[in-house]
Design a protein that fits this description.
The chain is mainly α. The chain has helices at about 25-40, 50-60, 65-75, 100-105, 115-135, 140-155, 160-175, 180-185, 185-200, 210-225, 225-250, and strands spanning about 80, 85-90.
Length: about 250
């Protein structure tokens, strides 16, 4: 990601062309750049990032924007700053890897194979159990949301932003239907994992198969109130998604 013509702040110079993109504030763009570089391995745990003066001068951004970006990374567990010691990249086990932004940074480049596997292991643990509970506890409104999301997936396909958004909505609706607060908290993380792995599978080729029928089987089982069938269908969905992602990584 280029940050060479990011707009200046603090009134130190007249702003130049703003290329931050819709909704992205300046410090968010800097956090994206640094987060991507950390997740890609350019900066390793223990490395010290450039000081704010050097970084601000190199990228022609304000020092306050850099500081705000570091605060974002600190909140996500990627770095820690200390006076006179600088900003150090923290060990990987401190990173909030389920944060939607961190997931996006991980998939901005070539994601780590072990990390991708761990995401699918998490999904394989959480989502079949969530589908089982959803089949037992869903109401008409839940089914309406799932059905609408499934229809949008079919209409737009998973090759489009709209289709992938519908995919996230589908998985979100299932977690909401569990009526389990602890599971519902995982909704944003699961949705981000679904989104980024789906995008990743399409980087170098078309999707190897159409996964929407697998989603339909999950919906049908939940709608029928068949808890075991719902869990089994979701387990198949996640397993096939892992196979597709593994194949994409091999390519």
């Amino acid at each position: 990601m280029k940050v060479d013509n990011i707009v200046k702040e603090d009134g130190d110079k007249k702003p130049r062309k703003d290329v931050r993109g819709p909704g992205r504030r300046l410090h968010g763009a800097i956090a994206h750049k640094l987060g991507t570089e950390i997740l890609s391995g350019k900066y390793q745990p223990g490395d010290i990032l450039s000081g704010e003066v050097a970084f601000a001068e190199e990228l022609k951004v304000s020092r306050s924007a850099y500081r705000e970006a570091i605060q974002v990374l600190t909140a996500k567990g990627l770095v820690a700053s200390r006076p006179k010691a600088g900003t150090r990249v923290l060990p990987r086990d401190r990173w909030n890897l389920l944060d939607p932004d961190v997931l996006g940074w991980a998939f901005a480049g070539a994601p780590d194979v072990d990390f991708v596997r761990s995401l699918f292991e998490l999904r394989a643990i959480v989502e079949p159990a969530a589908a089982r509970l959803a089949a037992q506890r869903r109401d008409k409104d839940d089914l309406k949301v799932m059905k609408a999301a499934l229809a949008d997936m079919r209409r737009h396909t998973l090759t489009t932003d709209a289709g992938r958004a519908a995919d996230r909505d589908f998985h979100h609706a299932i977690l909401q239907a569990t009526r389990n607060d602890a599971l519902m908290v995982l909704s944003a993380s699961i949705g981000a994992a679904v989104n980024w792995t789906t995008q990743f599978k399409q980087r170098s080729r078309a999707l190897p198969r159409n996964p929407i029928p697998d989603h339909a089987k999950v919906y049908d089982a939940i709608a029928a109130g068949d808890a075991e069938a719902a869990a089994a269908a979701m387990n198949v969905l996640v397993d096939l998604a892992l196979d597709d992602t593994r194949s994409a990584m091999e390519d």
